[in-house]
Amino acid sequence: MEKSRFDTGLERLTSIDGEAGQKVIESLQDICPDLAKYTIEFPFGDIYARTGLDLKSREIATVAALTALGNCAPQLKVHLNAALNVGCSESEIKEVILQMAVYAGFPAALNGMFAFKDVLLERKS
């Protein structure tokens, strides 16, 4: 039997983020379970499951995009953890965030770096 998009997505998300996928599902159950389902199915069941990029490259791109957006701290923190989980070094992540100062501005890069600082502190405790 072929896996559903949701099962594929949840498996992929769990392999990258540990419990983060389940927390997303649980946090949306009382208000919009469909949004939880779509968040698992499309990004992780469809896009992250593709073979064109490895997980490290996908997370570098995601960290860059979320940093550039500048208003996604919770999602950025999830993906900063994911980047570390799939093999990005601290210095690589710092360089990605620093690069965003050129293209997204200093406020976005500062917010991204502070989010990364929080992630590193949380991982040490």
From TrEMBL:
Gene3D superfamilies listed in its UniProt record: AhpD-like (1.20.1290.10)
Residues in Carboxymuconolactone decarboxylase-like domain copies: 33-117
GO molecular function: peroxiredoxin activity
Protein name: Carboxymuconolactone decarboxylase family protein
Originating species: Neptunomonas concharum
